[in-house]
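Protein modeling request. Please complete all fields; requests missing the sequence field cannot be processed.
Requester role: graduate student
Desired output: 3D structure, token encoding
Chains: 1
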Amino acid sequence: MGKILILANNDIGLYKFRKELIEELLKNNQVVISLPNGEFVKELVNLGCEFIDTNISRRGTNPITDLRLMFEYKKILNRVKPDVVLSYTIKPNVYGGMMCRLTKTPYISNITGLGTAVENGGVLQSITIFLYKLALKNASCVFFQNKENAEFINSKGIIKGKQKIIPGSGVNLDHYEILDYPEDDTINFLFISRVMKQKGIDQYLDAAEHIRKKYPNTQFHILGFCEESYEEKLKAMHEEGIIQYHGMQSDVRKFHQISHCTIHPTYYPEGMSNVLLESAACGRPIITTNRSGCREIVDDGVNGYVVEEQNSQDLIEKIEKFLALKYEEKKQMGLAGRAKVERDFDRQIVVEAYKYETIKF
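Delivered output (361 residues):
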């Protein structure tokens, strides 16, 4: 029996998007997970994982805190002595990768998105690229979730070894099964994301305000944690009846049941959008931005529409275009999305890719 160590920055993503992979790995391996404690850690332990509580400042850039994380990873590697390490997200990839190099431990990194530091350029981009070069040079394999991320990393000469593009985290087609398309007396739109500027919340709110006045048979729903800067605005718009804010939801499927379309106007550096994959799997049309991690999931005019980033007017026009469709045309859009994820984004594709790489150790 082998021993696999997984480094991640949160329990929610590890459980919701990698549960099937962990279950597969546990069949023939001991699996140890290193991440901050959270509500889903218990679920991961119940699957059979051993848990190591590891403090990670996900968005902080304090070098002392990051140095502590590096030493913590080194201690964990020396204690666990894994056959191979799997890492996800920037800090586990970078600092875990560096310590794997130091301890000569085989490791596989997953680039779940390049992050705002790389996206925005400048000094932080240069530092992040330098750290990636240190971390990924000796990786046994690097998984990318979209072609654009792979092209950027390769243009910087960061990776020397094996690499693959996988369909994000994929989607569990049994859990997110196709749902009956609801009647269209009232057209419900969904925004499922952290309520923050880069997720396109301003464009969604602009569109909701405009469309609700013109088409009173529409409803605009918002699901997700709200950042403090948007709390008052959402509260006011909710009270005015422009939007319906439902807060954080542990299971979004009940909202997909009433939804006619998911709107994801993000311009955040995505790896591959799980929101879009899950929506399409449920048979729901999608409207999203023309950027990597989103455009791969939507065929414009077939299973949804593509809009320009940070362009409220373009979003409004695409929503109106969707509203003008007949009921059967909306339904067929959703079915086309389901067919696309069945073909290209089944989570089993990701599980098999990891099985192929980890079986060597």
